[in-house]
Amino acid sequence: MNAIEVNQIRKVYNQRDVALNGISFTIKTGESIVILGHNGSGKSTLFRTLTGFEEPTEGSVKLLGRGVDAGKRNHLRETRKKVGMVFQAFGLVDNVSVFQNVLFGALGQVKFAPATYSLFASDALRERAMECLDRVGLAHLSERRADRLSGGQKQRIAIARMLMQDPEIILADEPIASLDPKAGREVMELLKGIAEERNITLLMILHQLPIAKKYADRFIALKNGEVFADGDVTVIDENFETALFGNAGPEEASSDETSQHIEQEAKSS
Fold first, then answer.
1. In terms of Cα–Cα distance, which of 11, 5, 4, 65 is closest to 226?
2. How far apart are CA 121 and CA 103, in angstroms?
3. What Gene3D superfamilies would the database entry show (predicted)?
4. Which letter, b or e, does each residue of 155-185 get, where b requires 16 or more Cβ atoms within 10 Å of its Cβ?
5. 49-71 b/e with 16+ CB inside 10 Å = b?
6. Quick one: which of 174, 224, 169 has its CA closest to 200?
7. Cβ-based burial of 248 (10 A; exposed 0-12, middle 13-18, buried ≥19)
């Protein structure tokens, strides 16, 4: 079964600014895919469309066989239940514990939100939360407040929270852009490892070619809101880099300095 189906989606702002222009692709269950492209290529708009935060002007998106309809909240909530999301900004609640943040990952699976509060959570939910924390290697920090963690630890907690959903798809939007090189490498290893051991479809939004080659099986490159190329990451070379990013290269096409350092580590590893 296809985990993700994108059919001729267009996104137009103000009736004239075309962000996406006829994007189509399918992703099979268990594939690890990276979306590549420079700033302004349409990566972020595509991500928001896949997650239902944006509604396409034309075309359709299906996740796990269900249509993504941003205009129907109940339908969108059902679609998202098995879709885990990882963002650059972590999205943790800073003034509560790590354990509580992970429990919040079960919000879509309970009838009442208080059932995810640590004081009221069932033994089954509490056990699952600790298992998720153990998988990301941070069970020993379960009682620490989230605002006392490093950036890398926060992203790993965000991944543990996502695992509480028991996802079949992981959508990761620039998951290492705000991390130092070591933490970025650890997060990429973690995401790839979880996807492989659980046969989860992993779709990452990145611009770094060396990281894409190391942690993805296939790439979809966007340029000017269209699919520029779609193929195995082994075909990525200097000629492809020049064709996609121009003479500036991916380092100058993105202003994120931390990501540049992570790219250098990926090249040398």
1. 11
2. 8
3. P-loop containing nucleotide triphosphate hydrolases (3.40.50.300)
4. bbbbbbbbbbbbbbbbbbbbbbbbbbbebbb
5. bbbbebebeebebbbbebebebe
6. 169
7. exposed
Q: Compute the distance between CA of residue 217 and CA of residue 77 in angstroms, rounded to an integer.
A: 29
Tens place of pLDDT per residue across the chain (269 aa) = 799 999 999 999 988 899 999 999 999 999 999 999 888 899 989 999 998 888 999 999 999 988 887 666 676 777 788 899 999 899 999 999 999 999 998 887 777 677 777 777 889 999 999 999 999 999 999 999 999 999 999 999 999 999 999 999 999 999 998 888 899 999 999 999 999 999 999 999 987 788 888 999 999 999 999 999 999 988 888 888 888 887 655 544 444 433 444 444 444 44
Supply 170's token pair: 């992981």
Entry pTM = 0.86
Tokens standing for residue 214:
């190391």
* ∠ Cα 162 163 168 (to 5°): 95
Taking CA atoms, 53 is separated from 25, 72, 204, 251, in Å, by 19, 11, 17, 28
For residue 127, the tally of other CB atoms under 10 A from its CB is 11
Spans of all domains in the chain: 1-82+206-268
Tell which phi-psi region holds residue 56, choosing left (phi > 0), alpha (psi between -120 and 50) or beta: beta
Residue 102: CB atoms within 10 Å: 33
Side chain identity at residue 156, one-letter code: R
Where are the strands (E) in 66-109, listed by range? 66-67, 83-87
CATH 3.40.50.1000 fits 1-82+206-268, yes or no: no
